[in-house]
Amino acid sequence: MGIDEYGGGQGPHPEVLVVTTNDVPGFEVRQVIGEVFGLTVRSRHLGSQIGAGLKSMIGGELKGLTKTLVQTRNQAMERLVEQAQVRGANAVLMFRFDVTEAADVGTEVCAYGTAVVLAPRA
């Protein structure tokens, strides 16, 4: 029985609740499955690099890079959720993102957390 049946799911996989907290009010952790992560590395598009360079001289949001980072984070989160599902989890607790530069050619984004099985408190 998935967490969505208790009104908790979200996003593209409502059967896996993803939260940044240690617990979920009204639910108890029945099983800790362990760490799960989703990882992706995106190279920078030459056009966005040139645009970012020009924009950095005058200030303002780097919209092309922002869009790429949002897409990258979403992909990393999708992979995290898929890994949690494969391992039998219905929730991921203590969800976080880690973003680093990857050898000056792109951005590495890692979404990670603790996969668990939640059940409503009796």
From TrEMBL:
Pfam families on file: YbjQ_1
The organism's place on the tree of life at top rank: Bacteria
InterPro entries: UPF0145_dom_sf, UPF0145_YbjQ-like
Similarity section: Belongs to the UPF0145 family.
PANTHER family named in the record: UPF0145 PROTEIN SCO3412, UPF0145 PROTEIN YBJQ
Protein's name in the database: UPF0145 protein SVEN_3264
